[in-house]
Amino acid sequence: MRDSLAIAAYAFPVGLVYGLATLQAHFSALDVIVACFVVLGGGAQFAAAGMVKDGAPWVAIAGVTLLINARHLLYSAAIAPYTSERPLRERAFMAHFLMDESFALSLAHFRRIGGFDRRAYWIAVLAVLIPWPLGSITGYLAAGSVDIGRLGLDVAFPAAMAALSLGMVSGRRDVAAVGGAVIVALGAGLVGGASVGLVAGAVLGPVFGLMVRPSDHDQSNEPERAEPAAEAGLP
Amino acid sequence: MNIALGLIPLSLLMWAVTYPSRALPMLAPGIERLPNWAISYLRLAGPAALAALAATGCLLTSDSPPHLQLGAVPIAVAVCVLITWKTRQLLLGVGAAVILVAVARAAGAA
């Protein structure tokens, strides 16, 4: 419970930043709320806001979302042994709420008690599901009354993306993947535009990481760990 | 389509490409037994995608064709990364970046 409160305490302010990003991308308040409950993935939501702002095609946004959220495959695989006895319908419902934070909190708890605990899982989910949309809509409404450009608020989105990305770096492979993604994104972006650069960087960046021998800190072969960003208090 | 339906269909599309990765291993145990390189690729894809997004957002201009932009915005992003890395507080890092850009613009430097 204490860990869940800590998660909730940071989800709200990060939501404020997301709300600001969505305002810049001309989301409606309803769009913001629906995204928070339906997508329920901070990194992908931030990415989508930036791409919508740049006028990227939805298929490109879907592709980037797929890449960013592909890590959930590993989370789900790690949780699966603990949920295998639950009814199929319950597992299907639970799966929608599997994100960095609920995974990190609930897996640690399941391991500690040696089994599944439904109450603990939903407490972990609510630790994000309440403050994340609340923070987002608050940021959206508050930012609507100011001059974004003059106040420098337009830098919030790339700054948040860069910090979130670096928060996920834990070893040599991550550094190579991030560095490769930046180089490819800029190169392709100068030729074909920001959206092309983004997709090219996202797809090819990990290839740079795979070409590097893993260091002791690399987690790319440890499917049962949450992203370091989540463990460190980032969405 | 965007004007009539807003961005709600986009959220549904994003859900449609996200839900399978959240659900498949829980619903069909064994499907997660991917080769090691595939698991590594999946883990690296998240930070790579976000880094690509940050790079195109702060280093490329929005005109067509884009150009590299240097100045207050990339510096502010770097400051944000440094502060967030040191303090683990995203809001603090973003706040510092915003203030830096606002001050630079007020001074006519950006």
How is this structure best described in words?
The complex is a heterodimer of chains A (235) and B (110). The longest helix of chain A has 23 residues, at 2-24. Chain A contains 13 helices and no strands. With 235 residues, chain A is mostly helical. Chain A has a domain at 1-156. In chain A, α3 (42-53) packs antiparallel against α10, α4 (58-69) packs parallel to α12 and α11 packs antiparallel against α12 (194-210). Chain A is globular. Chain A has helices spanning 2-24, 29-38, 42-53, 58-69, 72-83, 88-96, 100-113, 118-129, 131-143, 156-167, 172-192, 194-210, 228-231. By secondary structure, chain B is mainly alpha-helical. Helices cover 74% and strands 0% of the residues of chain B. Chain B contains 5 helices and no strands. Chain B is elongated, with a radius of gyration of 20 Å. Classes of the chains: A mainly alpha (235), B mainly alpha (110).
Summary?
Chain A is an all-alpha fold and 235 residues long. Chain A contains 13 helices and no strands. The model of chain A is unreliable at 228-235 (pLDDT under 50).
